[in-house]
# Entry
Amino acid sequence: MTPLLDVRDLQVAFRTGPMLARRDVLGVAGVSFRLHPGETFALVGESGSGKTTLARAINGLQPISAGSVHFDGQRIDRLGRAAMKPLRKVMSMMFQDPVGSLSPRMTVRDLVTEPFRIHGVRAELAAETTRLLALVGLNDSFADRFAHQLSGGQARRVGVARAIALNPRLVIADEPTAGLDVSVQGEVLNLLNDLRERLGLSMVIITHNLHVVHHVADRMAVMYLGRFVETGQTDAVFRAPAHPYTAALLSANPEPDPDKARERIALPAEVPSLLARPAGCEFHTRCPWAQARCRTEAPEMRPHGDRHLACHFPLAPGARPPERDIPT
Amino acid sequence: MSAAVSDAWRPVRRLLAEPLGALGIALVLLVIGGAVLADWLSVYEPSRISPRDRFQGPSWTHLLGTDQLGRDLFSRVLHGGRIALSVALFSTAASLAIGVVLGLIAGYGPRWLDNLMLLLFDSIKSFPTVMLALALVTLFGPSLTAVVVVVVLVNVPGYARIIRTQTLALKESEFVTAAQSMGAGTARVLRVHIMPNVIGPLLILASMDIPVVIAIEAGMSFLGLGVRPPTPSWGAILNDGFTAIRDTPWIVIAGGLPIILTTLGFTFLGETLRDVFDPRLKGRG
# Structure
């Protein structure tokens, strides 16, 4: 089966520095993954790990410096804007800020029907408005409102309606729950799950919220400094994280059950600067399990049991960090 | 529905609630009314020369008196209002249109184009208005067109800069990126997603610029760079009266008073408009 989305060794470089000392900084440093039709794939990582840049690169909003992106077997990363346009009907994107991603002077009606106008799709726009609003659980009375008259959750629903307006095959959702109350987050996730099943959507979800991942994603990838460090089935990764970074992320995730015993894995130090990537394994500066080999030799992304992993010393299920003096 | 109607009227009501705003509206309506109804209100042909009636003081036959050629000043002032207003409205509208387009291009386009356009704007702005007017009139001869061109050249750089700055700020905003990701072309992004969000402050500024334009027209006509002599213009009336100011001051008053009233009216209106739409600025210069 042809994957719907096939990303191979994708890199995004940014130019920084003064005129004579120009240098490239890799925001995304070689990432590969495949998304099959109907599947939901989550990208997880801290702020600055390159998640959003990766999403923008897939969508063609950000030029890539190496690697390739194939959509349904067609290479799309070298397409010009005109050639890309028809693909934008079948590949839509949702942005982080629920209100900020809606044009402030447009009514909800105009917002959700904008894709029809952009692509010159002939349709009964009034009926489409009603249909789309109903799909995301809003009634017609919202049609004449402006973005600033909506709550975060309502604005997010409008964003979802706009993203699915032309029956896309792929939706890339950048932090679909950012800026929403926890209860509204739940509603939005249920909505996404529901639409995914009803419309047969494939989704790439970018988030730092692990609850979101657990709730909607079939597979997930953990990103650190623009690289994947662990990918696998969501359930498997949650059950037994094999990369120390994944384990630390999961241990930092708030647990609703107060009686459950858990040990937080504290990561020392800050995220390294992209301008000064650590030698060897890029996570060794913060890894509680780091050993001599980690400081010199960079681990490759390799199959490890039911997943792929970039670590010299994969964790056994339930591993606890070794005792050591944490530098202050 | 009723909410929408009251929403639309709220600025107007607030405008009328401000004494300065109400005065501004009254003055502007007076001037516009005079210009529109000029043919009906004026008893005399504005350009009809009647040597026997020259230099007559204000009276019931000639409300504002007559000038050195015996032309009725009241009729000339009314018809001069037409010139002043049509030049002001037309050239302001033209400046707005050109300024908005150039500003959007400079703000949204590539960096080098932005820099090039800024250089151009600054070069035009560095010309004193009078020098620019003289230079253009030397090239094309005195005419209303010359006045309009001068006004447009003077206004466009400032308008374009305002639009450019706001466009730059919105260019990276999520709703613009969202429009791009949906496949909207540059023209559509600019027209539908950016322009409605940047034009508001400029409209208010432009309404405050109308008196400046009227002063430019009057000034150029006073200097003989604007409308050709028989055509009535406030600036030309001022010039007519200027030579005889010692003996017959009413000619200068007839030419100057409408300029002052119009300028005040539009300025009051513009300032109140600004306060109504942007209350944060209230009370500042």
